[in-house]
Amino acid sequence: MYLRTVHAETSLPILRQLIRDYPLGILTTAIPSKHHPTILSSHIPFILDVHDETSTTEPGILRGHLARANPQSKTVIEALEAQQKPNGSFLEEEVMVLFTSPIQHYVTPKFYTETKPVTGKVVPTWNYAAAQAYGRARIFFDSKDPATGAFLSKQIRDLSQYAEENVMGYDGKDGRRGAWKVDDAPEKYVDLLQKAIIGIEIEIERLEGKFKMSQELGKGDREGVVKGFGELGGEVGRSLRRL
Question: Is 54 exposed, middle or buried (0-12, 13-18, 19+ CB in 10 A)?
Answer without folding.
Answer: exposed
